[in-house]
Prior knowledge:
- Helix content is 29%, strand content 24%.
- It has 203 residues and is an alpha+beta fold.
- It has two domains: 13-90, Phosphorylase Kinase, domain 1 (2-Layer Sandwich); 95-202, Transferase(Phosphotransferase), domain 1.
- The radius of gyration is 17 Å and the shape is globular.
Amino acid sequence: MVEGSLPGLPVRYRDLGPIGAGGMGEVRRVHDAELDRVVALKLVRQDLGADGVEQLRREARTTARLDHPAIVAVHDVGVLDDGRVWFTMREVRGQTLASLLAADDRPRLRRLLDLLAQVGRAVAHAHASGVVHRDLKPDNVMVGPFGEVQVMDWGLGWALDDGAPSDEIAGTPAYMAPEQARGQAGLLGPPTDVYALGAVLYE
């Protein structure tokens, strides 16, 4: 991305290039001059319109209310001149649980159970804070170089005190609880995530 292609981004941030992209948007590496550190910046795709903007806002708000070592903290949030929402968070290095499971030398069962226990503790904290992830899967779990776990991508996360989400079916089919797959938004809750964790454990 060329210099100036993020009009409205505070001058404290210098774009260092892309990290990755997903269905909702992209993640870029930026240098924060105020704190002299490199962080990740997530911004919504330009073609997603108001719905995409609101979903990224919700992801930032949802993640910001969670304080757990296995959940990436949000540092800053703002809006570009073109209306796209962005937020910064700690850059997480490592590989996804999905890539570990697919590797020829995948970790032994005891190690995998330890990783899933870390995920479970993070999700339990979210539930205690009134938040449901709704899209738990190996691709959304990052494993760091020292075996630390980060539960990522809270874009479908929902705060229970916001009321029921829409009945639109959202998530990853292989990990959806029955009520989620049927679009029964009023039945979504912590058990929805527990079902997804069970599907991950089965893998």
